């Protein structure tokens, strides 16, 4: 990252320190023409230079840590609209508009838009108060209805099916006088698939912005009432709430406990390969009972993505059983040692009660205490949705969605367009529609479709470009640092604040400096240990007891390995990011939003993580 003293057009800052201009970023050699992989509206352009060069852009490594596949842009384009319309057109959030997107060298950069005119903020606040007040006042009832809508959307996604077009249309199409045929069903099924994704995307953010907004309001009250209070202390007052994202891990713990009870402990711990373990369990006298419990736990709790759920490469537990079985072996070993493997929920609740009571007692008047009580109550009420929606949307729904896209990819393989069903991800969703129609034309006419010769070399070209882009390290920020940030998700989820931006300005792209990284103090405690740098979910299986996890961001499905960790550190994230929440609920020290941890720290280095102060210190190099 380069810090310059340029004054970009529209920035309104004289000689202000800024990040590298997004227009000065060059493509790595061999990736020329990368722009052709993505839609025109997601790219930088000269006609938008005056506006885009004067804005602050940060890398969304939380959801898309790697160069985007063309098809995977459906997820980013989905939330580009879904998040933004809620803040801009539905509620609207008084000081915030939407979150803009640009793809730069294949990586997603985002920029929150703000409302700065006091009169406009006041006008929006009046509308927001009426609309948001309705949701806050009827939260439980609306949330119950939300769950029904989400589950119905998932059930309709399950029902979507793709199959190669038949050599001859079945007789039922003729004798039942359907009037529509396999070609029509294939096209409409694809349309249903895309519309289902966008439908769930809309549900995703129906209540989420309000959830973050309620917490942000409580946080601002505490910061004014208790000068110097930390984000960590504020967060502790809403911790200890049982949420769905812990249910998959709880299911793994129950399976571990059942294995010990059924004398299956050694059968499971002696097999690293999950499928070998399942075969051995099936041959055991008590195996049938355990396997029945395992099958019951899988649906839906193993539809748990190993990543954020926004990219097709984030496979779910149901596709790859290694993570839950690795955790299960650890839990079984702990149980045989007589240890308690339950989350420390009672201790967290006790601390929540203590901290809340302590700070409430500092308030000088009944009026202040009444306001405090109301704000902490609504923050606790909305908090479960902030996390629970994640299981329904990013994990259960998105994992199913990616499996359906792969099924469609098999149709293209069967019709000789692709060599592998994974090739479909090198096409943008709109290109898939065109390719489907090309396929149907060939089927209908008996003439070889153009796609048979067109797509293989084009996919090879795109694959080579994307592989080259993956060697580039995206800087955490570009453009002009903001004076203030008012968009709730940007602050609470990504942890982007003026303070964190200034920290980034003070660190070079090579990560060299004092050996100390600063971030958000996300979960209390101070631990020293050896670093384990994880930049790919595949590496999570390498975690050993006592490791300090260093990552871009954790996925909720990594929770089972947290029992092995000494502490967690992430490049991105705020006080309400999943790394922060899971760490607090597991009693694990954590620092998030460091910006540079994964490029500064190496696996094996001795590091000190201070979750009280928000610092990560490199103490010595890796052991030889």
Automatic annotation (TrEMBL):
Q: List the molecular function annotations (GO) for this entry.
A: transferase activity, transferring phosphorus-containing groups
* Segments forming domain PEP-utilising enzyme mobile: 544-614
- InterPro entries linked to this entry: PEP-util_enz_mobile_dom, PEP_Utilizing_Enz, Phosphohistidine_dom_sf
Q: Which domain of life is it from?
A: Bacteria
Please give the name of this protein.
Answer: PEP-utilising enzyme mobile domain-containing protein
